[in-house]
Each structure stands twice: as C-alpha cells, then as structure tokens.
Amino acid sequence: NAGVTQTPKFQVLKTGQSMTLQCAQDMNHNSMYWYRQDPGMGLRLIYYSASEGTTDKGEVPNGYNVSRLNKREFSLRLESAAPSQTSVYFCASSGHRDRGRGEAFFGQGTRLTVV
Amino acid sequence: AQTVTQSQPEMSVQEAETVTLSCTYDTSESNYYLFWYKQPPSRQMILVIRQEAYKQQNATENRFSVNFQKAAKSFSLKISDSQLGDTAMYFCASPPSGTYKYIFGTGTRLKVLA
C-alpha cells in the first residue's frame, strides 16, 4: 500500500530554474494539499485541491502553481526558483467525506535547495 | 482565522519517563477535530492521535494520550514510558470545520535520552 508518493525526494536548483514536484495518492481521496516546512515555522499550506477539477490558494502561494491532473495526481510547479523557496515540501491527501474530520496522509517529502 | 500554538520548541525526557507536550488553539467553531502528528528524522509525517471536540473522553492510543480542555482550548499530548523511538518533531494540527485546510503548530522537538 503506497499511500501518498511524491517525487523527487531531493533536488538542487539554480536560481531561475523551473521544476515540477509530482504527487500521487492511491487511496481514492478527494482532497490533496501541498505544504512547505521551514525551521521554526511548522507546515504552511501552499495550495490545496478540495476535489478533482478545483484548486485554491493556501497561506503562501506566491511563486507556485499547481495542477490537479486527475483524482490521483496533484503537481506543484516552481516557474522561476528563488533561494527563499529552499524548503521541504510535503504533499498530503485526505478523504473523509465530512470536511475537516479526517486526518491527512503525507508523502515522504522533497528537500529542495535553491542556490 | 483558526490558529494553533505550540509554545515549547524543544523538550527532552529520560527513557521510561512521562512527558507532556502542549498545544493551544483558537477557534470559533463548536465542532472540530484535533490531531497530533509525529515526524521522526526520516521526515515522514505519522498520525499519533486524534480528538473529536464534541467528545468529552480524552483519546488514548497505547502510550499516547491527550488532555483535551475544550473551554481552555488546550490539547496536550502525554507520552508515557518514553522510548528512544519517540525522538521526533511533534506537530499539533486542526482543520477548521467545514474547510479542507489543516492548520499546523510550529512543532516541538522531543529528544528521549538513554
């Protein structure tokens, strides 16, 4: 049982380069999320997708774009990477039919360094 | 807006002892859920325990239990018989009722000492 799978696990980018973080879940969950984790700041929501076909901004969306490709997949794109985007990125999904009641399941994270 | 606060950045405990991690939150909701997640050095986020606000009884999962004080908006995690494998970051989280967003605290780094 894979759960939430995100790739890559590690990435180094040069300032200005672009990249896409991929995420897929096999739990038939409706909702998917992208968080970033920085020291002392916990996890902050970048974007989320409540259901297939919808996406919404979270707390820190600037510099990112997302695509909910289908029910399983939710990608995060950095168009022009900046050193401030150095962070650990987590994809998560949740599936409780009542919003805000079920726990989120997380991928293993991507450590991204922008130099 | 809903907020979640963890005021202890770091804690340590001797193996086999008990430790309590604090979490407070602010919400105007009457029904909501609260979670504690563990993040070991592997980086994986693991659900430890969940509490439903409308339930009076504190949730328990083996050595992990919560002290839920709804009026005080406090949701602390008690770890009994601490083990070396409990060394991790612990995050308190709450999704505002009716939304899809999970709000996380800033975390408490727990070190269990041999």
Sequence-ordered SSE layout with sheet pairings:
The complex is a heterodimer of chains A (115) and B (114).
Chain A: E1 4-7, E2 10-13, E3 19-25, E4 31-38, E5 42-49, E6 56-57, E7 64-68, E8 74-78, E9 87-94, E10 105-106, E11 110-114
Parallel strand pairs in A: 2-11
Antiparallel strand pairs in A: 1-3, 3-8, 4-5, 4-9, 5-6, 7-8, 9-10, 9-11
Chain B: E1 3-5, E2 10-14, E3 19-21, E4 24-26, E5 33-39, E6 46-52, E7 60-61, E8 64-69, E9 74-79, E10 88-94, E11 103-104, E12 108-113
Parallel strand pairs in B: 2-12
Antiparallel strand pairs in B: 1-4, 3-9, 5-6, 5-10, 7-8, 8-9, 10-11, 10-12
Summarize the structure.
The complex is a heterodimer of chains A (115) and B (114). Chain A has strands at residues 4-7, 10-13, 19-25, 31-38, 42-49, 56-57, 64-68, 74-78, 87-94, 105-106, 110-114.
Notable traits:
heterodimer; A: 115 residues; mainly beta; seven-stranded mixed beta sheet; four-stranded antiparallel beta sheet; globular; B: 114 residues; six-stranded mixed beta sheet; 12 strands; 0% helix
3D structure, described in words:
The complex is a heterodimer of chains A (115) and B (114). Chain A is mainly β. Chain A contains no helices and 11 strands. Chain A has strands at 4-7, 10-13, 19-25, 31-38, 42-49, 56-57, 64-68, 74-78, 87-94, 105-106, 110-114. In chain A, strands 2, 4, 5, 6, 9, 10 and 11 form a 7-stranded mixed β-sheet that branches. In chain A, strands 1-3-8-7 form a 4-stranded antiparallel β-sheet, with no helix packed on it. In chain A, a hairpin with a 5-residue loop joins β7 and β8. Chain A starts with a strand and ends with a strand. In chain B, 0% of the residues lie in helices and 50% in strands. Chain B has no helices and 12 strands. In chain B, strands 2, 5, 6, 10, 11 and 12 form a 6-stranded mixed β-sheet that branches. By secondary structure, chain B is an all-beta fold. Chain A binds chain B through residues 31, 33, 35, 40-45, 48, 50, 58, 88, 90, 92, 94, 99-101, 103-106, 108-109, 111, and chain B through 6, 9, 32-33, 35, 42-45, 47, 50, 52, 91, 93, 95-102, 104-107.
